[in-house]
């Protein structure tokens, strides 16, 4: 087993170097694939309106278990190291446990993104049995009032901590992270969320600004305003001072929150690795370079992953991304990586070697 692992790592290192040297033709599949299994969701978040997708549309666009397994087979054959399932709510998709087990059997690391509302002791045991490596749980406030208001369902806050307790009992070694989407209602509560994470034995805290791209269509009353930026900056400083062990991402990533809100075109200075080092799959099998989903590469029920990934259409899309013909986002799936790769030079290589960041990356491959 050791030799294939190091061969896979070598291919990804070579792929990163090709990307850094300006290539738009990948040497292998991406390091990570994010897969939205369903748009069905049991919460009603204000910063994401996917939950409004009609149930008949959800049923019509969900592919079969055999098709899902075939896609996982294709991902593994193209050296994908990590697959991360999400939704909607991933645990509303009945095939999720079998898919996690199948991906693990193919040698991939498997993560997930969940609101944790459904994770009873029984579900926690099923999660442990199928082999999930890590779970990112949404935590959008340091108290029930804030979190539940943003999430649109009473009791969501308490369900998070019930889920953490159940998961720790079922599989103590599984990585559990909080993910916080910063918005107008919770901008002053980031240190409070970090305190809760530390008190409850959470392994880390990932934070992203409320993004405004069309897919999520966030409510206007959640977008952070200029007068709140000093509060956000102070919260970030306090996080790095009081809770540094929880933060896998570098300070530079947080420094660009202001840029995203005020002049996001400046962020084109970071070449985006989407479509080379990461990819996104939708419930119907559509393949995209990233969660923004601004242009489709193809559909995985019609062609294999390898056929699409190394197609002319994918190469053209990667060239458009390289030349800045894509929407700007600032989310944790790829933006911190874009910054790290921008620092990959003889004089700034030390920034890439931040121990916590390296550990965070290695957990995923």
Considering the chains and any ligands shown, give keywords for the structure:
365 residues, nine-stranded mixed β-sheet, 42% helix, alpha/beta
Task: Produce the secondary structure layout.
Blueprint (H helix, E strand, L loop, with lengths): L1 H19 L11 E5 L18 H7 L3 H13 L4 E5 L9 H10 L3 E6 L6 H10 L3 E5 L5 H8 L4 H15 L4 E8 L7 H10 L4 E6 L19 H14 L8 H5 L1 H7 L14 E4 L4 E3 L9 E2 L5 H5 L2 H11 L12 H8 L6 H4 L2 H8 L3
Helix pairs in contact: 4-5, 5-7
Q: What radius of gyration results from the CA coordinates? A: 19 Å
Instruction: Tell me the fraction of residues in β-strands, as a range.
Output: 5-15%
Helical content band: 40-55%
Strand order within the widest sheet?
Answer: 6-5-4-3-2-1-7-8-9
Question: Would you identify the regions where 5 or more consecutive residues have pLDDT less than 50?
Answer: none
* N-to-C CA distance: 14 Å
The biggest beta sheet is recorded as:
9 strands, mixed
What is the H/E order?
HEHHEHEHEHHEHEHHHEEEHHHHH
Structural class: alpha/beta
Broad shape: globular
How many beta-strand segments? 9
Mean pLDDT figure: 92
* Tally of alpha and pi helices: 16
């Amino acid at each position: 087993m050791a030799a294939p692992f190091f061969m896979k790592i070598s291919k990804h290192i070579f792929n990163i170097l090709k990307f850094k040297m300006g290539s738009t033709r990948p040497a292998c599949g991406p390091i990570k694939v994010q897969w939205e299994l369903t748009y069905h969701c049991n919460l009603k978040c204000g910063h994401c309106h996917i939950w409004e997708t009609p149930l008949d549309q959800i049923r019509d666009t969900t592919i079969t278990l055999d098709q899902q397994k075939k896609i996982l087979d294709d991902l593994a054959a193209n050296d994908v190291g990590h697959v991360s399932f999400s939704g909607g709510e991933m645990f509303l998709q009945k095939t999720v446990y079998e898919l996690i087990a199948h991906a693990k059997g193919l040698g991939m690391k498997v993560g997930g993104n969940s609101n944790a509302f459904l994770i009873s002791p029984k579900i926690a045991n099923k999660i442990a049995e199928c082999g999930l490596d890590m779970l990112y749980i949404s935590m959008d406030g340091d108290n029930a009032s804030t979190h539940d208001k943003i999430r649109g369902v009473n009791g969501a806050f308490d369900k998070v901590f019930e889920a953490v307790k159940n998961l720790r009992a079922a599989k103590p070694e599984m990585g559990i992270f909080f993910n916080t989407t910063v918005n107008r209602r919770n901008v002053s509560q980031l240190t409070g969320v970090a305190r809760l994470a530390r008190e409850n034995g959470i392994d880390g805290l990932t934070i992203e600004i409320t993004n405004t791209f069309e897919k999520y269509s966030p409510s206007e009353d959640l977008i952070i305003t200029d007068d709140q930026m000093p509060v956000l900056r102070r919260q970030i400083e306090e996080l790095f001072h009081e809770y540094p062990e929880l933060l896998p991402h570098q300070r530079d990533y947080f420094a660009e929150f202001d840029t995203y809100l005020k002049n996001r075109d400046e962020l084109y200075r970071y070449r985006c690795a989407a479509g080379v080092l990461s990819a996104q799959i939708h419930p119907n099998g559509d393949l995209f370079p990233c969660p923004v989903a601004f242009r489709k590469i193809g559909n995985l029920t019609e062609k294999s992953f390898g056929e699409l990934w190394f197609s002319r259409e994918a190469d053209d899309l990667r060239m458009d991304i390289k030349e800045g013909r894509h929407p700007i986002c600032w989310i944790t799936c790829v933006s911190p990586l874009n910054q790290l790769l921008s620092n990959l030079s003889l004089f700034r290589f030390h920034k890439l070697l931040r121990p916590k960041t390296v550990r965070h990356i290695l957990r995923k491959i």
